[in-house]
């Protein structure tokens, strides 16, 4: 019985550590970037992304691994019919894809979010989220 408690405690400790350092979110974001960009060498890509994160953190900058170009591509993924806009549900799904389960900032108004608005709002969320 006490061994089960130890196992649960170890899992809880591990999860708390991962959450404290935002590692689950970081690897979710890197995984999403790998899926979008499909690099020929995913391991080298992952190392490069981690190096970028390290440089940003050492400069005291929020660690934001998604660029406006990445978000431009992401908008196209959600705007499958090429209408030039997405809806709130798609916007929230896009936030989840970049590791943000719920927006902390005000969401765009209306159910027609154009690319420029999408990029601005998602980038603001990404920068606010950051990693340290």
Write the layout of secondary structure elements.
Blueprint: H1 2-20, H2 23-37, H3 42-58, H4 68-78, E1 85-86, H5 88-97, E2 113-114, H6 115-129
Antiparallel strand pairs: 1-2
Helix pairs in contact: 4-6
Structure report:
It is a single chain. With 132 residues, the protein is mostly helical. The protein has one domain (1-132). It is built from 6 helices and 2 strands; from the N terminus they run H-H-H-H-E-H-E-H. A two-stranded antiparallel sheet has the order 1-2. The termini are far apart. 20% of the residues are buried. The model has no long low-confidence stretch (mean pLDDT 84).
Flag low-confidence runs. none
Rg over CA atoms, rounded to whole Å, is 17 Å
Could you state the order of secondary-structure elements as H and E? HHHHEHEH
Global geometry: globular
- Approximately how much beta-strand content do the residues carry? under 5%
| Tally of structural domains | 1
Number of strands: 2
Largest sheet: 2 strands, antiparallel
- The overall pLDDT average reads 84
Helix/strand class: mainly alpha
- Placed side by side, the strands forming the largest sheet appear as 1-2
Number of helices: 6
Terminal Cα span:
38 Å
State the helicity in percent bands. 55-70%
Q: What brief labels describe this structure?
A:
mainly alpha; two-stranded antiparallel ribbon; 6 helices; 2 strands; 66% helix; globular
